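Here is the promised in-class demo. Please do not try to memorize the tokens; focus on the logic of going from shape to residues.
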């Protein structure tokens, strides 16, 4: 997958790309990220990228030219890709969107900044994306969030079992334990040491459903449970 990331703060996105899974994906040749400094497309000797809003009021607004010219430069390098514009007004990002975007060959991530951007920049975007109902200072962290969620779904980046975690299926993960068997008075549930894979599977499923019902009942309301899941969920209501 090729990703072009447009930002006024290239240094804000470099660190995460040089660490962990993202770095490994780049190392394996599964991901290629190019960072474009919007300032290099700024106007005049001072490389101006922002201006005051027409109509008055405070703050500075990202001008359209640097973004359009950066996208032109990307297009000249071959293909325009799917253009995502990061804004709190965008569609809330979720695992379904991550999976859909992971099938794209080329993404262009446009990070706004300042108090906002010129409305005409929206005309460039195929999608406007938000990562949740809170306000950040810019689109850099959202772009990295989306890039991380999408990259781990690109085949070969992590094992298929890890990528297909239970959230992909719409419920929360079950509790996990490793050594030691007991730590500071907290014991690993006996069933996990039993070697009985049938019992372990049912326990994990029951605990995943219990946790989802307790913490994210909204995830269960929007889906149809099969007979086994309904039975396991009932069991969680009978005994703790
Ligand atoms: Cl995409 N941008 C900004 N500035 N704030 C946000 C956001 C995006 N998503 C949630 N908050």
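The designed amino acids, position by position:
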């Amino acid at each position: 997958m090729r990703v072009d990331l447009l930002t006024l703060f290239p240094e804000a996105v470099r660190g995460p790309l040089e660490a962990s899974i993202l770095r490994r994906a780049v190392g394996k040749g599964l991901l290629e990220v190019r960072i474009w400094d919007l300032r290099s497309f700024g106007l005049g000797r001072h490389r101006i990228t922002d201006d005051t809003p027409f109509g008055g009021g405070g703050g500075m607004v990202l001008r359209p030219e640097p973004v359009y010219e950066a996208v032109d430069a990307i297009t000249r390098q071959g293909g325009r890709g799917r253009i995502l514009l990061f804004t709190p007004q965008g569609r809330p990002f979720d695992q379904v969107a991550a999976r859909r975007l992971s099938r794209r060959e080329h993404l262009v991530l446009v990070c706004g900044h300042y108090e906002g951007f010129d409305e005409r920049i929206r005309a460039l975007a195929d999608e406007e994306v938000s990562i949740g109902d809170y306000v950040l200072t810019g689109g850099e962290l959202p772009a990295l969030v989306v890039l991380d969620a999408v990259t781990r779904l690109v085949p070969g980046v992590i094992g298929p079992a890890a990528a297909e975690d239970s959230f992909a299926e719409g419920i929360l993960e079950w509790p996990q334990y490793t050594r030691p068997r007991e730590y500071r008075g907290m014991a690993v549930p006996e069933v996990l040491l039993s070697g009985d894979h049938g019992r372990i599977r049912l326990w994990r499923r029951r605990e995943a459903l219990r946790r989802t019902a307790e913490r994210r009942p909204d995830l269960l309301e929007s889906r149809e449970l099969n007979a086994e899941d309904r039975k396991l969920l009932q069991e969680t209501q009978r005994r703790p």
